[in-house]
Specification:
Blueprint: E1 8-11, H1 14-17, E2 34-38, H2 41-54, E3 57-61, E4 77-81, E5 90-92, E6 97-101, H3 106-115, E7 118-119, H4 132-137, H5 145-148, E8 155-161, E9 167-171, H6 184-187, E10 196-203, E11 205-206, E12 212-218, H7 221-224, H8 227-233, E13 240-244, H9 246-255, H10 258-261, E14 267-273, H11 281-291, E15 299-300, H12 304-324, E16 329-334, H13 340-350, E17 355-359, E18 364-369, H14 377-393, H15 409-415, H16 418-431
Parallel strand pairs: 2-4, 3-4
Antiparallel strand pairs: 1-2, 5-6, 6-10, 7-11, 8-9, 8-10, 12-14, 12-15, 13-14, 13-17, 16-18, 17-18
Helix pairs in contact: 13-14
């Protein structure tokens, strides 16, 4: 029978539904019963009632740019696509905050803040494509996270559809609210397992007015790994510290765009500072002194156009590798900055065939298994578990910014403290007693 819902667009065509089985991960989910695009609280209330009555689960989805299979169906499901959810982006300049519906794009949120002379730092690689709601549900990161933190550091309040069919607001539009635990934070990075985020208010800061963007080639790969510590000792905090290992750099040089083919060094870093005064010679001298001999080939972007071209290469790295190796698996482990060299030693010891790039400034490393498509599933699972265990044993985590979803659920359950897993499950049962919100993900 056709699925009807008030104030909603419902998609049931199997050919159209097929595209909702995937996100940007290597996971393929089940075919959903339907895709629902609600436009009112009435629609959401009816959606919860129908899900409970018909034994269906509700899977939230934004732009589908997630990398952990968190927005695909697992079991009998309705995909709740919030792209039509009403609301406008509003900036409160006096209150240094911004409110937006889940349907807003992250690009729109960042541009609205910038238009008011303010700054919303979270900048995942997909920031020009992803949805604001999805960035909240996955606790999106990006290059700026090393200095400014993840999405959760910026959230003041969250509006969420809960199991009673109502939208509740958790938190207030102010930085000071100490009336018990901050329940809004439960939803950031939860991937929709407690309820569906419909909107949020986030804090803003004055926008940076100066940038220093540096290309740092190094003749020896190993020399790169200790440089974040050198900067920290000198009291310098880059807003971004990105890197390419020799294998990724070789791929870009051989097959990438023209700008990439001229990249120097055995390995390469892209650093950016946004401190007041960073465009001056005195600040650059401090950076050069902190980097020591590694700064001998340092190159500074001379204008905004060159800065954008350098960032464009970094931004396309993931899609470039995906085009070259369509069946690759990309993971995003994190290790403490002091253990980064130990991680790569361990990776060599385990003989995991991987190439790596990512956020050297905060230890969030994108480890790509390019031959995953030609590797037996059991062998690939073993490689991935070894990779995750190495990160955890070094005091890190099996995901830095992509989340758990379906892709890492088994590894998360195997490597996590059982007490913490059970605590999450108790929260799930308390907030979602019928188990309709995105079951089968994370826990």
């Amino acid at each position: 029978m056709p699925f009807h819902l008030p104030d909603s667009t419902v998609i049931e065509d199997p050919d159209l539904l097929a595209s909702y089985r995937r996100d940007e991960s290597h996971v393929e989910g089940d075919l959903p019963r339907a895709v629902v695009r609600p436009r009112s609280p009435r629609a959401l209330k009816e959606l919860v009632a129908r899900a409970e009555k018909d034994g269906l689960c509700l899977v939230p989805r934004g732009a589908g740019t997630g990398k952990a299979g968190g927005c695909v169906a697992s079991g009998p499901s309705l995909i709740v696509d919030l792209c039509d959810w009403p609301g406008a982006i509003t900036v409160d300049r006096a209150g240094l905050c911004l409110s937006a519906p889940a349907s807003a794009s992250l690009k729109g949120v960042k541009e609205a803040a910038r238009g008011a002379g303010l700054f919303y730092p979270p900048d995942p690689n997909s920031w020009q494509l992803c949805g604001f709601g999805g960035s909240l549900a996955t606790n999106a990161g990006g290059p700026n996270a090393g200095k400014y933190g993840m999405t959760r550091h910026w959230v003041l309040s969250v509006d969420a559809l809960m199991a009673d069919g109502e939208i509740h607001t958790f938190g207030i539009a102010s930085v000071k609210a100490n009336a018990g635990p901050a329940l809004a934070q439960l939803f950031i990075g939860s991937e929709g397992i407690f309820g569906l985020i419909t909107g949020a208010t986030v804090r803003l800061i004055p926008a940076p007015t100066e940038y220093l963007t540096l290309l740092l080639p190094v003749p020896r790969w190993e020399d790169l790994l200790g440089l974040p510590a050198c900067l920290a000792k000198a009291g310098l905090q880059p807003s971004a510290f990105e890197f390419f290992d020799p294998a990724v750099l070789a791929e870009l040089r051989a097959h990438g765009p023209e700008e990439a083919r001229r990249l120097p060094g055995e390995a390469l870093a892209l650093l950016e500072f946004d401190d007041a005064g960073c465009a001056g010679d005195a600040f650059l001298d401090r950076v050069v002194d902190a980097l020591g001999p590694s700064a001998s080939h340092l190159q500074a972007a001379t204008d905004e156009g060159q800065r954008e071209r350098l960032w464009a290469i970094r931004r396309i790295t993931s899609s470039f590798l995906k085009e070259r190796h369509p069946k690759k698996v990309s993971e995003d482990i994190t290790v403490p900055r002091a253990r980064i060299a130990d991680f790569f030693t361990g990776l060599d010891r385990l003989k995991i065939p991987a190439v790596t790039y990512g956020h050297l400034g905060d230890g969030n490393l994108h480890v790509n298994l390019l031959a995953a498509g030609d590797t037996a599933p059991e062998a690939l699972d073993h490689q991935l578990m070894d990779l995750f265990r190495l990160a955890v044993d070094l005091g890190g985590a099996l995901s830095g910014e992509h989340g758990i979803g379906l892709a890492k659920r088994d590894a998360f359950l195997a490597l996590s403290d059982p007490f913490q897993v059970e605590a999450l499950r108790k929260l799930k049962r308390a907030l979602d007693p019928s188990g309709i919100f995105n079951p089968g993900k994370v826990i």
